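Data card: per-record layout.
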Amino acid sequence: MAAVLLVAVAVGLVAFFKFYKPAPGPQLPPPSGDELSVHVLDVGQGDAILIVAPSGKTALVDASVPGSGKKVLAAMERYGVDHIDLFITTHAHADHIGGADEVIKGTKVYKVLDSKVPNTTKNYEDFLDAVEARVENPQDNFITATPGQTFDLGSGAVISVLAPIQPLFTKDQLRSGGNEPNANSVVTRLDYGEFSILLTGDAEAQTEARMMEQGARLAAKVLKVGHHGSKYASSEDFLRQAKFKDAIISCGADNRYGHPSQEVLDRLKAAGVKIYRTDLQGEITIKTRGAEDYQITTERQAAADEIYAGRKAQRDDSTKSGFIQYGDFGPAPKASPKSKSANSR
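The structure for this 345-residue chain is written out next.
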């Protein structure tokens, strides 16, 4: 009996180290002890995250839908930021790169990091045109995201690339609800001393599974929840392995795709993760000096029963047209009196 148990333990250890042992990360510099801030901007149904390091270097992750560039530029002015050292465009959907051309035209951008998974839309063409016209030396500074890359923001703050992992997902490999730009989202992590945040774009469960299989450094203090809280992301295994303390969901109050889904909120709650939402709480800011503790503040307050209540979907977010291709422009149609109660949270 003892021999059988030893064999079982040995097999389990082999499986663990083969599939789940985290890859050694980069040698991280010590934090300066000065304040770093992460601002998850309230841009409706999309993502735009502004990172300001103590050194004065900055990073921007996505720029939400067309027209949101003005909101991003206004936030930069509010926080005394006059340039972007690293602009990470996680993928080519309009709710992430819709305002990118406006940002690139409106401020100095030194480097752009992109998955280079194309999308045949005018939004993506406008983004590429802006990079070509306004980013100095784009052949070197328009960078294809590759796991293992690091970008030093100074003062001990480092951004590392975890995905997309080659070979890229192809259409025939996609699971239910998946699509190529989402599955191949640029996933990065920001480390500053003891603080860390995982920035997942619209990465979904199959992306999470591949990162786990490859031993990516997923464990972090904070998660920017993938795909706005879609039911196709934030798997139970992923949350169990990464052990996040807090999670931030960036979505619009009037989105029609059921973001965030009740399933994801329930999974986060079961994992003991505290949730923050831009649709209910507005802009969300994290401040840290690189120690174990950090502060999260919100523009508005929301009750716990609101935070953990999902939205009812008027349309499935795996659809191959509409939102997935072009983004969610404008508010969702108003519910009729008959359906209003069915769609309430």
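Known properties of this structure: The longest strand covers residues 83-89. The chain is about 30% helix and 20% strand.

See the next section for split statistics.
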